[in-house]
Amino acid sequence: MKTTLYILLFQCIAICIFSDSARAQRQNKDERTVLRITKKNAALLDSINQLLVVFNETPEINSATLVALEKKDKHWSVISKPMLAGIGRNGFAAPNEKREGDGKSPTGFFRLGQLFCYEKIVNTRMPYIQTTEEDKWIDDPGSADYNHHIRGISTAKSYENLKLNNNAYKYCMVIEYNMHPVIKGMGSAIFFHINENENPNPTEGCVALNQQDMEWVLNWMNPESKPSILMGNEKVLITGTDRKKH
Question: Which of 10, 26, 146, 245 is the most interior residue, by most CB within 10 Å?
């Protein structure tokens, strides 16, 4: 009986050691990947000091890895564990190929803009607006307000309400895709928001983290460091991009 118990205990210990080793190897691989990505895209990242890199290995899958980095003395360092993120239900669009309603997240480098929050007080240094039921984000390509925030009545045929009956937009930060300038039909309402489950759920084109990870990111962000996001398929990002900031 004791022999059987010792064998089971040994097996449990071996499994735990193997699992920890596999996680460590995966984390090290992810860290090497994001550092390669920042090196290849150095020109885009020159004026910022905080960055989220979101990438997947296969463009079509709807989950990704998110890693936070910080730049000091012109050197990027990984400062977070890899986090599971939900992205567009159809994965990442190829560069310049994101379109309205395609269910894909855009590829490229984007500033992180206005933060909307359900609560009046939030543990972040980022400026934010307390969301009301009147807040909308216009996704109607025929509207003059396409891909803009509106508070109050809108004549647009379709829009996203920014205060929902769930916590998905409890913290909702604008990813400034297709905003400088806005091009009709190229996609709208691309947000960085909460994924209500521990495992990543697909989105319509946004990037979503679970609440615990999202709160860590918001607490870390410093507006003086110009927080931004670099997102796309791993191979595309490692190739590098000469896209201008949007």
Answer: 146
The token pair at 5 is: 């118990």
Side-chain-side CA neighbours of 12 within 13 Å: the count stands at 6
Q: Return d(Cα 147, Cα 182) in angstroms, integer.
A: 7
pLDDT at 197: 79
How much is the pLDDT for 245?
42
Provide the pLDDT for residue 142: 97
Tokens of 178: 């297709």
Nearest to 108 by CA among 179, 28, 171: 179
Identify the band that residue 4 occupies on the pLDDT scale cut at 50, 70 and 90: low
Sheet hosting strand 135-138, strand order edge to edge: 149-151, 135-138, 159-161
Q: What's the DSSP call for residue 225?
A: G
Comparing CA positions, the residue from 47, 44, 109 lying closest to residue 74 is 47
Peptide bond into 106 cis (omega under 30): no
The reported pTM is 0.88
DSSP-derived pairing of the beta strands 75-78 and 63-72: antiparallel
